[in-house]
Amino acid sequence: MACTRRNLGMIQELLSHEAAHMLKNKDGWNSFHIACRKGDPAVIQHLLLANPEVWRTESKTLRTPLHTAAMHGCEEVVSILVQRCGYVPDGRDSCGVTLFMDAVRNGHIFVAKLLLEKHQASPTAADIPGAQSVHHVAVTAQEEALEFLVRDLGVDVNQTATDMQLTSLHYAAKEGHTGTIKALLTLGAGTEQVL
Q1: Residues 92 and 66 in one domain
Q2: Which of 117, 192, 120 is nearest to 158 (CA)?
Q3: I want to staple 96 with a disulfide (CB 3.0 to 4.6 A). Which of 33, 46, 85, 128 is the partner?
Q4: 85-118, pLDDT tens digit by residue?
Q5: pTM of the entire structure?
């Protein structure tokens, strides 16, 4: 609860009384996952100081605290975790979703850039069904992230998800994202692919 409130003083007090900070909730999250979602760098630094191994945890769906920080756009926390912890660059959850996918599909381009530059993330890694970041951003209608992937990183807008042979245009059409469909067409998506 102290981590949900970003209350460093209370966290320090609880830890000084040997609070069991590695206990997990029903989803497999411990206090470090929650602190990473809230994004307070001082809390993260303190928890790592109290237990340098606290980052070595996964939820029941294999999501790490770094997945959580990337998904919520906590740039300072992502930077700390990338520098101080031993996360693998394209660590995946139980669905195969990578840290980079979490960042871009939620529109956190600054976090995605950090993961590319400081953590050697791959913008073309695929999840278990074969969808790449370009497909994920089409589903979530993150048009700025889509432009970043295609224009800045050179990701193929017509790349198919391997298991289903669907393109990002298919995904956007399925979700009814008219603006994203227009953006995809502007970026070179083939119109014959939605038939």
Answers
A1: yes
A2: 192
A3: 128
A4: 999 999 999 999 999 999 999 999 999 999 999 9
A5: 0.90
* CATH code assigned at 106: 1.25.40.20
- Tens-digit pLDDT profile for residues 30-56: 999 999 999 999 999 999 999 999 999
- Residues 103 and 73: their CA atoms lie apart, in Å, by 7
Confidence at residue 3, expressed as pLDDT on a 0 to 100 scale = 85
Tell me, what amino acid is at 176? Answer: G
How far apart CA 99 and CA 104 sit, in angstroms, is 9
Q: Is the pLDDT of residue 163 over 90?
A: no
* Residue 59 CB partners (closer than 8 Å, separation 6+): 24, 27, 28, 29, 33, 93
**Enclosing domain of residue 1:** 1-122
Tokens of 22: 């590695």
Same domain, 102 and 46: yes
CA distances from residue 94 to 7, 20, 27, 194 in whole angstroms, order as listed: 31, 26, 13, 29
Q: What is the CA radius of gyration of the chain?
A: 18
